[in-house]
Amino acid sequence: MANREENIKKINAELEQLTDEQLEQVAGGTYNETAADTRFLNDLAGLCDRFGATKAFFQFGTVSGEAVKGWNQLGISVDTSWGGSNRYFKDGQELTRKQAFQFACEKYGKKLQDMPGDYNF
């Protein structure tokens, strides 16, 4: 019978073989949205590095920190959560995720529907 450490190594090896898209299909949670936020912020104006769901799953603190820094450059604060809902704020008012994305696009003279990525809406 395998011990806990062996089981974790086996699970990690299996997860590493999945693409981000496959992982998103089998493992829910807003770490996916936080990773998508980094891709959006990078696509929008290079405001942070871009990360996939696999990295966000295993290194949420790093990915979350990048997303927070990127949003802060736009005047938006975000409380990220690995398994709960992310919360976005502008001037003390809570925004929906989509409103935050739309505000960011407007700041750069872009339209959300014209952005190149799939940001998990």
Describe the structure.
The protein has helices at 4-16, 20-26, 31-45, 53-58, 60-72, 97-107; strands at residues 76-79, 87-90, 93-95. By secondary structure, it is mostly helical. The protein has a 3-stranded antiparallel β-sheet.
Mean pLDDT: 87
Uncertain regions spanning at least 5 consecutive residues = 24-29
Tell me which oligomeric state these chains represent.
Answer: single chain
Mass-distribution shape: elongated
Number of helices: 6
Question: How much strand content do the residues show?
Answer: 5-15%
* Helix amount: 40-55%
**CA distance, first residue to last residue:** 42 Å
Placed side by side, the strands forming the largest sheet appear as 1-2-3
Layout of secondary structure:
Layout: H1 4-16, H2 20-26, H3 31-45, H4 53-58, H5 60-72, E1 76-79, E2 87-90, E3 93-95, H6 97-107
Antiparallel strand pairs: 1-2, 2-3
Helix pairs in contact: 3-5
Please outline what is shown here.
By secondary structure, the protein is mostly helical. It contains six helices and three strands.
Any key phrases for this structure?
mainly alpha; single chain; 6 helices
